[in-house]
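Inverse folding, one chain.
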């Protein structure tokens, strides 16, 4: 199992098993992943910054620890990537923006980056994002267009599009994304990954997002077990985040295979308001049938709230305006036109408008806390449409519908702060991935992982056909 291609396709869990047995080393795995990046990143554009020498140095140190029989943490030697919104010492964090000086200094690790280093992970580099994570597709004036490895003409989604595309291609078995309105789950669904948005505060953040308490950090993987393992590392406390939850000392890998027999699952095909592509609706309904076959008690029911799109986009545009108002005129001149449009929409909001949005958000959160008293899980499609055509920044006018209208299942659960994940449940006739979303009660992160793992046992996650990928002219 030392072949470079095989190692690039291994999960983190598989790599750790190989390291433990001596059948492969972190240096072998890192070289395999770097070769995969060199081969496919020109076509996909998933990485905006790569640090091969630093990664190999980290891998050699890990190899020495494994040789001594003394790995330093749960992810020792596992190659992984970090979204370019997350501070990483020694690497620029440009947030997809020409407004940020690449010279830095870059001396601070965000909490999740620090925990990854402590666990021995090999940090490969930074993955692409739209400017400041501002949209559900990944393009920017800084890095250009990131593409979907299932079909290079399609978007990988966003804003963690580079993260999802990298994991799908085997450019590392694990990558860390962020999710403010679906930004882990959208690209995970479009690229055929497993992606988790944990309960708000479960993974500490620093600095806190200018978009406020809708913003979460979560893992992208090609297996549920890898996500559970990553969460054991990511959820460790960090005092810099005053909004973070108390320490959770549980092991998310324990009980992962306990199944879903007897669980009460609410299935809402449209949340009462969404228009869903027929192929997606059919695939999700079939997936829900498999959940019933696994012993869950499934009830067809909507949670009973109106589309909160205007709440999400109102709060989001306010965050954009907050950033925009701190930029110089020279910086504003080189910004993404989509981000500029969002900021100018945010400028129009009054203090009273914002307070009313917060009150409506609170009512929605209360409603869902009460709804989840009746059910263990809520299941929906992840995104209402398949991956659409990849286009440059500023391709069409920006408004709430253009920004998020096509992903009506993701943003409600950023507002409510509940844990939610996506797992592939099929392909369209054009062979584009379809996502199934599990939403748990607040703090039910382990349960969401367990349910996804149960579904994974009947439909394992598949990679795209990389042999069909050809660099674009």
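Residues assigned per position:
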């Amino acid at each position: 199992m030392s072949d470079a291609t095989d190692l690039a396709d291994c999960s983190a869990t598989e790599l750790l098993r190989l390291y433990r047995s001596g059948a492969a080393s972190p240096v072998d795995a890192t070289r395999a992943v770097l070769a995969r990046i060199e081969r496919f990143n020109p076509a996909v554009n998933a990485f905006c910054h790569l640090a091969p020498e630093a990664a190999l140095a980290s891998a050699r140190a890990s190899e020495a620890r494994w040789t001594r029989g003394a790995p330093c943490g749960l992810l020792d030697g596992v190659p992984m990537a970090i979204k370019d919104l997350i501070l990483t010492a020694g690497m620029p964090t440009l947030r997809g923006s020409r407004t940020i000086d690449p010279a830095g200094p870059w001396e601070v690790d965000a909490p999740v980056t620090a925990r990854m280093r402590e666990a021995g992970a090999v940090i490969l580099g930074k993955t692409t994002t739209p400017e400041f994570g501002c949209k559900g597709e990944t393009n920017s004036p800084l890095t250009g267009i990131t593409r979907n490895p299932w079909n290079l003409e399609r978007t990988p989604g966003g804003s963690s599009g580079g993260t999802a595309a990298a994991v799908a291609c085997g450019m590392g078995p694990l990558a860390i994304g962020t999710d403010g309105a679906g930004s882990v789950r959208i690209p995970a669904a479009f690229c055929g990954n497993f992606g988790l948005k944990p309960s708000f505060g479960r993974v500490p953040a620093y600095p806190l997002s200018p978009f406020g308490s809708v913003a979460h950090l979560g893992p992208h993987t090609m297996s549920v077990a890898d996500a559970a393992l990553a969460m054991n590392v990511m959820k460790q406390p960090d005092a810099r985040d005053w909004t973070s939850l108390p320490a959770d000392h549980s092991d998310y890998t324990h009980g992962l295979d306990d199944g879903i027999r007897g669980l009460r699952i609410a299935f809402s095909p449209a949340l009462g308001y969404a228009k869903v592509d027929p192929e997606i609706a059919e695939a999700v309904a079939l997936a829900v049938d498999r959940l019933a076959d696994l012993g869950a008690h499934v009830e067809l029911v909507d949670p009973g709230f109106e589309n909160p799109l205007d709440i999400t986009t109102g709060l989001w545009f306010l965050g954009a305006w907050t950033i925009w108002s701190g930029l110089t005129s020279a910086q504003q001149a080189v910004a993404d036109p989509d981000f500029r449009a969002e900021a100018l929409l945010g400028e129009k909001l009054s203090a009273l408008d914002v307070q009313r949005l917060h009150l409506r958000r609170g009512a929605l959160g209360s409603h869902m806390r009460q709804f989840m008293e009746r059910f263990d899980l809520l299941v929906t499609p992840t995104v209402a449409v398949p991956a659409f055509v990849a286009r440059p920044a500023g391709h069409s006018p920006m408004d709430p519908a253009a920004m998020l209208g096509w992903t009506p299942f993701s943003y409600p659960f950023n507002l409510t702060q509940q844990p939610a994940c996506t797992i592939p449940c099929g392909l369209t006739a054009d062979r584009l991935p379809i996502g199934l979303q599990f939403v748990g009660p607040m703090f039910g992160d382990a349960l969401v992982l367990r349910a996804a793992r149960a579904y994974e046992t009947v439909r394992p996650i598949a990679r795209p056909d990389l042999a069909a990928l050809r660099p674009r002219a």
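Residues 351-371 form the longest helix (21 residues). The longest strand covers residues 420-427.
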